Amino acid sequence: MLKYTDYVSTLFDDHSNPNKITVAFKMGVQALKKGHSATVMLMVDGVYLARENALEGIDIGAPFEPAKALLEAFLADGGQVVVCSACMQHNSVHKEEIDSRFVVITADDVIDLLMNAKGSLQLT
Question: What H or E segment, with its residue span, contains residue 41?
Fold first, then answer.
């Protein structure tokens, strides 16, 4: 179920840009550590990262943790990962492929998440 959060990080890239993937999840973890609620939103090519174990092997090195570890910490601390349904359809990513911990959202949800957030980071 979708929940509005204080902070929203929007990720548009897939495996081709591991730096952006890492930063999106690192900033989400940091927002949670500071007491804010947080969402990482996967859009455009970012929807490929919604597949089960998609972050496996993504590690840009110090001072950052591997992306999969950041995702697990983010989710364990109450973070929310959402995936754009239109982007999924456009990129032939099917709901059955999506990590069951993630929420599939509509364009209306994207707007509502951003408009209800206190702050956001757009990684384009």
Answer: strand 38-42
